[in-house]
Amino acid sequence: MDELRVGVVGVGQRAVLAGHASRPGLARVVSDADPAERGRCDAVFVLTPDYLHTEPVLHFLNTGVAVFVEKPMAISLEDCDAMLAAAKTTGTRLYVGHNLRHLPVLRKMRELIDSGAIGRVRSIWCRHFIGHGGDLLLQ
Q1: Within 10 A of 65 (CB to CB), how many other CB atoms are there?
Q2: Distance, CA of 64 to CA of 96 (rounded, Å)
Q3: Residue 28: what are its φ and ψ, rounded to 5°?
Q4: I need a labelling partner for 7 at 20 to 30 A (CA). Which of 15, 27, 95, 104 fits?
Q5: Residue 138: pLDDT band with limits 50, 70, 90
Q6: Which sequence spans correspond to the domains of the chain?
Q7: What confidence score (pLDDT) does residue 49 get?
Q8: Phi, psi angle pair for 12, to nearest 5°
Q9: The domain 4-99 is classified under which CATH number: 3.40.80.10, 2.40.400.10, 3.40.50.720, 3.30.70.890?
Q10: How much is the CA Rg of the chain, to the nearest whole Å?
Q11: Residues 6+ apart with CB under 8 A from 10
Q12: What is the dihedral of CA 20, 92, 101, 25, to 10 degrees?
């Protein structure tokens, strides 16, 4: 199999995530938000701020490039619907990520579960507080 060439849109706060895509012989980052043209990529990470996801996601889907976009997909239902429609129309893969699963504390939790240290897990409930409120009740 040929090495997968990956582009990154949004080289700010979350761009370090794209570094995990580089695997010698399997995948390498070939393009980023630099204005210099660097050729076609096979896949792209869209790591821009949430309100800027839509335009690059639609651009790449409509050109047949697979897209990984950080959650949330977009900040409006209309933009999410447009992304899903573009993926369906073009047959291009669209992935929506939630990278907190890679946090050390969550990896440790998984390790404890897998090792049987806490017994058989039958149910999990997760409440996540982040950003400007999340589930947090402001007082």
Answers
A1: 19
A2: 17
A3: -150, 145
A4: 104
A5: very low
A6: 4-99
A7: 85
A8: -110, -130
A9: 3.40.50.720
A10: 18
A11: 33, 45, 46, 47, 48, 49, 52, 56
A12: -30
Say how many C-beta atoms besides its own lie within 10 A of residue 30's C-beta: 19
Q: For residues 131 and 118, give the distance between their C-alpha atoms in angstroms, rounded to a whole number.
A: 30
pLDDT at 12: 63
Question: Rounded to whole angstroms, how far apart are CA atoms 103 and 107?
Answer: 6
Q: Are 9 and 38 in contact (CB under 8 A)?
A: no
Here the tokens at position 93 are 């893969």
Q: What is the pLDDT of residue 20?
A: 75
Q: CB of 23 within 8 A of CB of 47?
A: no
How far apart are alpha carbons 119 and 111 in whole angstroms?
A: 12
Q: Which two tokens stand for residue 77?
A: 């239902």
Mean pLDDT of 19-25: 77
Q: What is the mean pLDDT of residues 33-47?
A: 66
Give the pair of three-digit tokens for residue 28.
């390498």
Token pair 């402001």 is found at: 138
Which single residue is written with the structure tokens 């938000």?
A: 33
Q: Per-residue pLDDT for 60 more than 50? A: yes
First to last CA, the chain: 55
Helix 77-90 vs helix 54-62: angle between axes, to the nearest 10 degrees?
10
